[in-house]
Amino acid sequence: MGKTILIVDDSSIMRKMIKETLKSAGHDVIGEAKNGSDAVALYKQMKPDLVTMDITMRGMDGFEAARQILRDDRNACIIFLSNLDEAQYSREAEAIGAKGYLNKHRSKEILTLIEQL
User: Fold this and answer.
1) How is residue 2 annotated by DSSP?
2) Band of the pLDDT at 115, cuts 50, 70, 90?
3) Cα dihedral sign, 28-40-32-82
4) pLDDT tens per residue, range 44-90
5) Alpha-carbon distances, residue 96 vs 17, 21, 44 (angstroms)
6) What angle, rounded to 10 degrees, do the helices at 62-72 and 87-96 form?
7) Is residue 103 classed as helix, strand or coil in its secondary structure?
8) Domain locations in the chain as residue ranges
C-alpha cells in the first residue's frame, strides 16, 4: 500500500515531476507546499506518512521547516531532495533527523529509498 506524501518545493515544475513519480508507484500525494512555513502548517493539518523537502526556498528554508516539523513530531519521515550536492548538506540533513537526502537529478531513486523505510 502506498504512503501519504507532502511535497515541498518552490518549483512548481519540480513538484509536478516528484508527484508523477510518486503517484506512478501507488503513493498518494495529499499536499504540496512552495515554502517552509506552508510545509509546517500543512504537516500539522495533514500528518502525512512522508515529506519530500527542498532546501533552498524563499522565507523559511527546508532545514528550518524540517526542524520545526521534527520538534512537533519526532517520528516525522522527511527526505530532502535538492540540487545542492555538497556533502555538508547531506550531513546537515542527517543531523536534523531526515531519513534521506537525494539530488533532484536522481529523484526517481526516491522510490527505492521509500521502500527501505
Assistant:
1) P
2) confident
3) negative
4) 999 999 999 999 999 999 999 999 999 999 999 999 998 877 788 88
5) 26, 26, 18
6) 20
7) strand
8) 4-107
Distance CA 98, CA 77 (A): 7
Q: What is the dihedral of CA 102, 28, 63, 66, to 10 degrees?
A: -130
6: its cell numbers: 507532502
Cell of 23: 503517484
Residue 82 CB coordination number (10 Å) = 20
Taking residues 33-52, report their average pLDDT.
98
Check if CATH label 3.40.50.2300 holds for domain 4-107. yes
8 A C-beta contact, residue 117 and residue 99: yes
